[in-house]
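Our platform keeps sequence and structure together, in a single record for each protein. Because each token names a local backbone shape, the row as a whole describes the fold. One such record is reproduced below, unchanged from the form in which we store it:
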Amino acid sequence: MARTKEFDPDAALRAALELFWQRGYEATSMSDLVEHLGVGRASIYATFGNKRELYLKALARYEQGLLPDLLADLSRPGPALPGVRALVRRYAAEASADDSRLHGCFVTNTAAELAAHDAVAARRVERNWDQLETVLHSALARARAEGDLPAGRDPLALARMLLVLLQGMRVVGKASPDPARMRDAAEAALALLD
């Protein structure tokens, strides 16, 4: 007779995500995971695989909440440009807010820590950034069609610039509590949309 799991895999995955997000991949040991999840090592391996596989599953869980929110924010009826502006300002505020500043963005953290030597992690980061770029590009193309973005502005180039800005905010925000730095950078970038 097969044994039933004595823990909630979804709750354990959320707990692993929290721990990896707080500490990073390298600084999180299997012992840390066992303690934080309250699940035995053998059960972690049987359910999620090794530490790297668990990390990648946690990354996938994190990504599930990102794109739908961005699509909803940038696909609302009405003018598109205010949604882009609001998104950039939200990133600036979050990057300097104490509760999220120290953790940064899990995708950005993965890029900084793993992408250079883990091809799977690099592809996942790239896929996430491609999706963000596509959402921004679509919104900016819509803004140009609506006449809110000058005809001479390239929506794809602007989307790429904003992608790099948003990811950079996440990195700088981890080390700098200065909200003026983020706000000034955001406003200077948004001025390019006029």
The radius of gyration is 19 Å. The chain is about 75% helix and 0% strand.
